[in-house]
Recover the amino acids of this structure.
């Protein structure tokens, strides 16, 4: 009897051990299979496409965050400026890239909206690019040449009445946020500034500072350094509340004008069809880059707020902003060339 029980116990133990070994083998195979299905990322240097010339609002932000993201991911990020057509050329570069999340685009709500609403993309622009990470939330800024007697919107009206043919404003292109905000100022103040589009706001700001034109609309990152150097005067911000980084610059509502509100963003997008795991890795890296003291210092100084979050949250933000832009373009009859 005792021997029989011992034999049964031995057989049971062998069965258990065999089952454990089998389970371990299956688990190991599944892990190996999962590892094969999710290759390492990134496997080569990444490209970060900037849709403006050097000096534009997104350029400095792209270069500063690229260094931190590259360090976290263990790969170099090559920043490339591909300007033109209000961001269309840069977006097409990313759309045509391999869907492996190694080609990225830093966009502003301005360039993104103009590109998606241009009707020049082959397919639904909202589906050709996928959101990776929102970097900032910021207003548009109205800036004027410092030699002009324009310190607020009422001064703008007075100046235009005296100089009806001598008031032009620079934007980063047709249909961009700078353009739309300039037109909103025209509508809500009664002035008739003439729109002068540029391939990126950097050259437009330079012409405003030199006096070739009088007004420029730009992001805080683009115009902030010039204002701090005393080369441009900031008249107003387009957000509902004053910007923490520009506390002395009033809102349009504070100046007595309604209907001039606009909140923009800067963010990272990549080619549709890129692996979800790669997008999440990039999202985490860009979110972390916003914690760098030098990045926070730059954003605060330029009146932009860091806006980390998930790819889905960024997707909701850019779609909401796009819908607002589409309505303004339709209401004003603006054609994006």
């Amino acid at each position: 009897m005792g021997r029989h029980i011992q034999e049964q116990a031995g057989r049971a133990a062998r069965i258990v051990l065999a089952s454990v070994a089998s389970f371990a083998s299956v688990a190991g195979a599944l892990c190996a299979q999962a590892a094969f299905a999710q290759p390492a990322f990134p496997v080569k240097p990444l490209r970060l496409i900037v849709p403006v010339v050097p000096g534009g609002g997104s350029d400095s932000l792209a270069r500063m965050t690229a260094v931190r993201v590259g360090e976290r991911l263990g790969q170099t990020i090559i920043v490339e400026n591909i300007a033109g057509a209000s961001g269309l050329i840069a977006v097409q570069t990313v759309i045509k890239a391999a869907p492996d999340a190694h080609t990225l685009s830093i966009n502003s709500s301005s360039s993104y909206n103009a590109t998606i609403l241009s009707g020049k993309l082959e397919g639904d622009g909202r589906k050709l690019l996928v959101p990776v990470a929102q970097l900032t939330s910021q207003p548009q800024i109205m800036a004027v040449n410092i030699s002009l007697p324009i310190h607020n919107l009422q001064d703008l009206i007075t100046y235009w009445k005296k100089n009806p043919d001598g008031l032009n404003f620079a934007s980063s292109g047709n249909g961009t946020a700078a353009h739309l905000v300039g037109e909103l100022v025209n509508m809500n103040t009664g002035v008739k500034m003439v729109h002068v589009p540029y391939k990126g706001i950097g050259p437009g700001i330079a012409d405003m500072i030199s006096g070739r034109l009088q007004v420029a609309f730009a992001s805080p990152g683009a115009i902030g350094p010039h204002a701090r150097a005393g080369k441009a005067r900031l008249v107003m911000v387009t957000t509902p509340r004053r910007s923490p980084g520009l506390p002395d610059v009033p809102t349009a509502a504070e100046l007595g004008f309604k209907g001039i509100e606009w909140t923009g963003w800067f963010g990272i997008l990549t080619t549709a069809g890129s692996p979800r795991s790669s997008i999440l890795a990039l999202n985490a890296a860009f979110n972390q880059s916003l914690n760098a003291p030098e990045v926070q210092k730059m954003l605060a100084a330029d009146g932009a707020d860091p806006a980390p979050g998930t790819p889905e949250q960024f997707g909701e933000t850019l779609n909401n902003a796009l819908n607002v832009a589409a309505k303004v373009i339709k209401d004003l009859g603006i054609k994006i060339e």
